Structures are given as C-alpha cells and as structure tokens.
Amino acid sequence: MKNIQYLFACLFVFLFASCKDDENNVIPTVDHFLVAEGKTASGKKVKLWSAEKDLLVAYNKLYVSVQNADSSYTGDPAVTLTPVMDMGTMKHSSPVEQPVYDASTKLYPAGVVFSMPSGDMGSWTVTAKVDQEEVTFPVNIKSSPANTKYTTTFVGSDGTAYTITLVDPSGPKIGLNDLVVLVNRRESMMSFPAVQGLTLEVTPEMPSMGHGSPNNVNPAFTSGGRYAGKVNFTMTGDWRLHFKVLKGSTVLAQDVALDLLF
Ligand SMILES: [Cu+2]
User: Fold this and answer.
1) Degrees, nearest 5: CA angle 26-80-120
2) What is residue 3's three-state secondary structure?
3) pLDDT digits (tens, 9 = 90+) for 166-206
4) Where does the YtkA-like domain lie (predicted)?
5) Which of the residues 35, 74, 102, 108 has the least number of beta carbons within 10 Å of its own beta carbon?
6) Is the CATH number of domain 151-261 3.30.1130.10?
7) Alpha-carbon distance 45 to 241, whole Å?
C-alpha cells in the first residue's frame, strides 16, 4: 500500500516537476525511521535511521547514511558509532556492533545497545564518525515495555562486568525461535568489547505458570560477540530466559536472566 502511495506521489511530482532521483528514492525510508540528521564540517549529510519507531533499552538495529551536500553518494567512508550517556557526574558508553557498508542499500547497518533510559538519570547521544569528521546526535531512549528485560549486566566470578543482550527473537512467536544474544565486557566506561568463546546454557521459564519448555538449543559462539541457538516458546505470555555462563570449565555466572513478553 505504501508502495502504491509512493507511486502516486512520484507520479504527481513527475506531472508538475520531475520525478527527481533524490535521496528519498534511494534510501529505503518505507522500512526505516529517521532518528536524526546532521552535517559534517565539510558538508557531508549524515542521517541516523532505526528499524523501529522507538529506541529502547535493548539491542537497537540502526542504520547510517552518508551523502555529499548535493545528495549524491559519497562511496563508503569509514563510519563508526559511539553512544554516550551523560549522567552529570559521569559519562559512559555501551556495546556497539559497528556499521558495515551495504552497497545494495547504500546504508551502514549497525547494532547499538542502550543500557539505560533517557530521563532523570541522564541523556544519550550517538556520535557518528565519518572518516575523520564527527556528527553528534541527541537521541531519546525509552524503557523497554513493563515486565521485559532485553539487556542486563552481571559481574562474573572472574571479577569482570559483562552485558548480555537479546538480539533475536525480536518478534517472538509460539514455537521454536532463533535465539541470538550479544555478550560484551566492560573494559572501561567507554569501551565494551565483544566477548567470544564463552559457553552459554539457556533454560526458558514461564514464571507466571512455573513451567519451562523442551527442545531448546544452547546458543553457541558465531562471530563478534554473538551466540546463536534456539528457544521454544510453547505458549504466549511472560518468558524468562535463564543463562548459565561459563568460560572453559569456570562458571562465570550461574543464572543471568532476560525477560520477554508476547
Ligand atoms: Cu547511564
């Protein structure tokens, strides 16, 4: 339907002007929400897009586009994203899967974990570094829905602070779902490198009814800080994912929980 509306809009523009091959024709705005836009000192247009309408305390699929001042494309300059929460007395960052250019969409898909909501506790920005230039966007981060927890931090038995974040299922359904989690460690308040080589064991539980589910597959390391397995939701409602986290034979944490509701 949106495509048809767009076709008509384009036809209308064509009749009265010309159907300009401008940025709106190229960037897939139908599927993406514009979060913020700005310009670098040299005039490059940088836009931050989101797969979802709201940015949440969660894993967020974000996209960056970079254009020249005349809206032509710049090629694929190096782009990195740095989220920063200013909490007044201190600042901290959060885990990021850095953007990688996708020539088919002319976008840079990325993943950003926001660990806290914007509000009384502080405010978030995301800085895009494009080659050597920076553009900083204020962003508003909302809490995830009541009774959900998509990202959490725990201190392992090795004394290291880790974050574990749900990437998939982003749209949970009854039955076997792909399960992907992202694990990072807090090297400093500004650095959260991905952690590879852990062993994760997942046990789903429906707390309101006190049962679990069969046929789950423990998430195994794939790449970056990602671990992929399967989770079986036998009914809709509240689900808690319990993770046991091991490094070799050392148990880092016996029970780290994420909560879903669908
Ligand atoms: Cu904070």
Assistant:
1) 100
2) helix
3) 999 999 999 999 999 999 999 999 999 999 999 999 999 99
4) 160-242
5) 102
6) no
7) 41
C-alpha–C-alpha distance, residues 63 and 101, integer Å: 10
Q: How far is the CA of 121 from the centre of ligand 1 (A)?
A: 7
Tell me the backbone φ, ψ of residue 41, rounded to 5 degrees.
-60, -35
3-class DSSP assignment, residue 172: coil
What phi and psi, each to the nearest 5 degrees, are found at residue 134? Answer: -120, 145
Residue 68, helix vs strand vs coil: coil
Distance 172 CA to ligand 1 centre (A): 28
Looking at the domain 18-142, which fold is it? Answer: Immunoglobulin-like (2.60.40)
97 Cα: distance to centroid of ligand 1 (angstroms): 19
Q: Could you read off the pLDDT of 6-27 as tens digits, one per residue?
A: 555 544 444 444 444 444 445 5
Q: Which helix (H) or strand (E) holds 10?
A: helix 2-16
* Domain(s) of CATH 2.60.40.2550: residues in the chain: 151-261
If you average pLDDT over every residue of the chain, what do you get?
91
CB 165 within 8 A of CB 58: yes
Q: Say which residues have a Cβ less than 8 Å from residue 40's Cβ, sequence separation at least 6.
A: 46, 130, 133, 134, 135
Distance separating the N- and C-terminal Cα atoms of the chain: 27
